[in-house]
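B., you asked whether I could sanity-check this one before it goes into the benchmark set. Here's the sequence:
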Amino acid sequence: MLSFLPRPFIGIIASTLLAINSFFWVPILMGFAVVKLIVPIRGFRLMIDPVLLFIAEAWISCNSAWMRLTQNTHWDTTGIDGLAANSWYLVNSNHQTWADIFVLQHLLTHRIPLLKFFLKQELIWVPLMGLAWWALDFPFMRRHSEAYLKKHPEMRGKDQETTRKACEKFALIPTSVMNFLEGTRFTAVKHERQQSPYQYLLKPKAGGIALALNAMGDKFHSILDVTIVYPDGAPNFWQFLCGDLKRVVVRVQTLPVPAHLLSGDYANDPQVRDAFSVWVKELWRNKDQTIAEVMRATARH
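And here's what the prediction gave me:
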C-alpha cells in the first residue's frame, strides 16, 4: 500500500503501471485479433473469442492489482454476490467519471462476463485502447445532433444498425452488455442545461437499452442496475490515479428482464417508445432515491 506517498508520486506510479499493463497485454490481444480478422469463420471465431476475453480479463486483473497497491479505498458494495459468470446480462449504471469504468471492472470481472461498452466513435483513436476495444467487438457509435440529422437524413438509424450488428455478435458467447443511460458523464452544468428532474442524475436515454433488449432480450439472464456513489465527490481521472478514491458505494440490483418490452419497433412505434420511457423513468427515479439515501447515510459518518 503506497497511500503514504505524496499524491503526485502515486499518480505517476499508477500511470506507469497502467501503461506497462496496457503495453504488455494489448499487443498480445492484437495478435489474436489479426488472426480472427484474417479467418472470419464463425467456428474459428468461437475458438478465438475466449482467448481474447481471457487476455482482457487479465488486463483488468492487473489494473485491480495496481489499484490495491496505490489506492486506500473503502468499498461499500451490495448485490454483487451470486452472479453468474457464464450467462448474459444487460448492465446499466449512472455515469460521473472515467473512474466509473475501473470501478465496474474491478467489482464485476469474473463475477459476470466481460463488460462490453457502447463507445463514442472518437474513442477508437485512443492509443492502444481503441484497438483493444475494436478487437473485443465493442461497438463504436456516432452520435449526431437533431440539426445534423435534418440535413443528413440518410444518417438516421445508423447507430441503431450498429447496435443490432453488435448484439448479433454478443449472442454467440456469454456477454455483459453495458449501457450508461445518461449517454454522457454527469456534471452540474449538464444537469442545469437539461433541467433534469432528478437530483443526482441526468435524463436517461432509452434508445440503446431498447435496441439491445429487442435484439437479444431472450438471451439476457437479467438486468443489473448499478448505482455508483462517491460520497466525497467524483474524482476526475488524474485524481483517481493519485489515490483520491477514498470511498465508493456501489449498489447492484438484479432485475427481471421486462417481458412486455422485448418485442415491438422502438424506432418507429410511438407506443413502444412510450412504454420504454415509462420503464426507464421509473428505473431512474429509484436510482436517484438510492443515491439520496446513500448520501444521507454517508454524511452521518
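One thing to flag: Residues 7-38 form the longest helix (32 residues). Otherwise nothing jumped out at me.
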